[in-house]
Write a structure and sequence with these properties.
Chains A, B: It catalyses: L-aspartate + ATP = 4-phospho-L-aspartate + ADP. 2 copies of one chain form a homodimer. Chain A has helices at residues 16-31, 46-57, 63-87, 119-127, 152-164, 196-204, 212-220, 274-284, 312-325, 353-363, 387-397, and strands at residues 3-8, 35-40, 92-95, 102-105, 112-116, 130-134, 137-139, 145-147, 168-172, 177-178, 190-191, 193-195, 225-229, 237-240, 253-267, 289-297, 300-308, 330-343, 368-374, 377-383. By secondary structure, chain A is α/β, with parallel strands linked by helices.
Chain lengths: 400, 400
């Protein structure tokens, strides 16, 4: 019997009418002979309301107790959806995160899934048509209830699919993955098939439809992953293994990461501990740096990297401290820049992608200040005010 | 270290301000060197709201999913109380029913506690000052979340106290146990000490402050049980073993059960299956009958009993069916009667209680139609319109 994992987010289960529509859709799939595992989030707004309550009771509410509070949101959704499915005559079992065997580790509110003990889940699937599972939650070794942090319900769904070896369908309020953000370049085409690697690069480079960790789990277990709009007839995007993708292109997508800070440091002393001192401070402050490139020559060395624009305040502090240690250092910090990336697993086999992209940007008069490449992506730092134009030029160049 | 179990009901935790007041009271007890296990209900109104939602989604919502839904109410209360206690600097651990090891059996929404696996609870108590536990809920052998039905949170508290051998304090919106309902007889005195047996009779006979099962658990494990008003300086009632009660009276209380139906049946055929046929139907309809007395003589036999007034509709149906089987039967059904009972463990040793009560009622001109006695109680069926007078006469007679 065909069994899939489906996930519906907070907007999709925003009110009882929407939950009823989803229940009817599930019923029609069950009547076609499918069995379904359905992962749901808290009803839209619930989590925010509970967080507001917690913060009204303490300016620093403890994470274990907040996690315990928030998980009631998903528990209510699984109850409501199950009551409706029962009423439609569907044999339904509801399960909280710990009942479904989702074991976590790490901080109470940003836990990661350590393992899934699927025996209860599989037993439930034997006797029911639909098993409804609370997303975003699990239980740790101390038997404490935890939440999975950002994109948590997606992770729940993909991890269960991986453990039970089933395809996973993520339903949300977008039609699928686009070659580039339609808000940036409105002619952007939808991608119907994309490889795990491409999708991971897209996510990491700023196309934030799915958390990278979800795609990683799907990739590691070869689980086909679908992303599409809830209750829509529009075809969404299947994320799958390289070999399964039918139509291979050199470039599949263009990602834009706006508001980044581009930093270049010049240090005449080649033996300087500058890089060590700097990176140590970034790590201590938990600041991510990206696009690191370094050149050493007779003049000393040059280091470039990018940082998210919202780190600007903490950055000043770090730079001041490092400048006191390395007074000869010359620093060039440019805010309001953007990172534009082209992604495509076809780059591995097809030559000339980089040079075609360089040419396109140059011909359009868009200067770029740094370039880094990975196996299946190339990223450019451009001026913030030229980023949309850069996306458009690249999308057109590669027929996206 | 002194450790007690405290229970606060839904009205006591009706809003965040009330929860904060309770947290402050707990803090002052902790600062006096106590450790506390605190059992709480859902915030007043929450359970009704969730039930309303469930019933709006299905006219017959399945009990397993409704139980799952309702338990989110208590889980939210334990989160909120714990966040506040944390903020007051109290080392606090929150636990749902299953985390506290409360194992149940029976229907999902009227489960009974099978056992408490207290190892997590005791470990939590080692490292915390207050352990906050969600009342009214547990987990069954199938790892399904269940609710305990009426008086469920009280049962949670008493069962934990029994398992951990601690006194149990139930806080509610009454000042304690009264010798008789102050709404019926306003001069009724509060009882500061009462035996388990007396309290059980009082509960069973209609003085519904505590469910009988709670008192039974406390009795079986010799756990002192306190009943009093939340955050009040008024002294409440301690329910305890016979030997610990200081001031023994012949009669401790008068209970009133209004709106009962008094039935008497005459059957000339002594070998008739009437009683069998009748009781079988009562059982099939799950109707409780009470105060059963039977007399057999040369004229045949006579059977009297009482039934709750709200069963009137179903009663007619049963009587019609039985009359068809036993056409010689003569039936006398009197609605709008009341049962008035006097309770006191002193009756065991003191003689003449029954005759003093008979006399008092007779002198006051209050006819009674049936009398039944237990070891520590005597019950009378009187006319509904004379029940308050009967309570008053008996309360005065025994100086309550």
């Amino acid at each position: 019997m065909e069994t899939s994992v489906l996930k519906f987010g907070g907007t999709s289960v925003g009110d009882f009418d929407k939950i009823k529509e989803i229940a009817n859709e599930l019923k029609s799939r069950v009547s076609r002979g499918e069995k379904l595992i359905v992962v749901v989030s808290a009803m839209g707004g619930t989590t925010d309301e509970l967080l507001l309550n917690a913060n009204s009771l303490s300016s620093t509410p403890k994470e274990d107790h907040v996690a315990l509070l928030l998980t009631t949101g998903e528990q209510q959704t699984i109850s409501y959806l199950s009551i409706i499915l029962d009423d439609l005559g569907i044999r339904t079992k509801a399960m909280t995160g710990y009942q479904a065997g989702i074991k976590t580790f790490g901080g109470h509110m940003k836990s990661r899934i350590a393992d899934i003990d699927q025996k209860h889940l599989e037993a439930a699937l034997d006797n029911h048509d639909v098993v409804v599972i609370a997303g975003f939650q699990g239980i740790n070794d101390e038997m404490e209830i935890t939440t999975l942090g950002r994109g948590g319900s997606d992770t729940t769904a993909v991890a269960i699919a991986a453990r039970c070896n089933m395809p996973c369908e993520i339903y949300t309020d977008v039609d699928g993955v686009y070659a580039t953000d339609p808000r940036v370049y409105e002619e952007a085409g939808r991608i119907y098939e994309i490889t795990y690697d491409e999708m991971m690069e897209m996510s990491a480079l700023g196309a934030g439809v799915l958390e990278t960790r979800c795609i990683e789990i799907a990739k590691n277990h070869s689980i086909p992953l679908y992303l599409g709009r809830t209750l829509s007839d529009e075809k969404g995007t299947w994320i799958m293994e390289d070999t399964q993708v039918l139509e291979r292109k050199a470039v599949t997508g263009v990602a834009l990461d706006s508001d980044i800070i581009h930093v270049t440091l010049y240090e005449p002393e080649r033996e300087s501990t500058l890089i060590f001192d700097l990176f140590e401070k970034f790590e201590a402050h938990d600041i991510n740096i990206d696009m690191i490139s370094q050149v050493v020559n007779s003049e000393g060395f040059q280091l470039s990297f990018t940082v998210k624009g919202n780190e600007s305040y903490r950055l000043d502090e770090i730079f001041e401290a490092v400048e006191r240690l390395h007074p000869e250092m010359v620093m060039d910090v440019r805010t309001n820049h953007s990172k534009v990336s082209i992604i495509g697993s076809g780059m591995r086999d097809m030559t000339g992608v980089a040079s075609r992209a360089f040419m396109a940007l140059q011909q359009a008069g868009i200067p770029f200040y740094q370039t880094t490449t990975s196996e299946i992506s190339i990223s450019y730092v451009v001026d913030g005010e030229k980023d949309r134009q850069a996306v458009e030029v690249l999308a057109k160049k590669f027929n996206l």
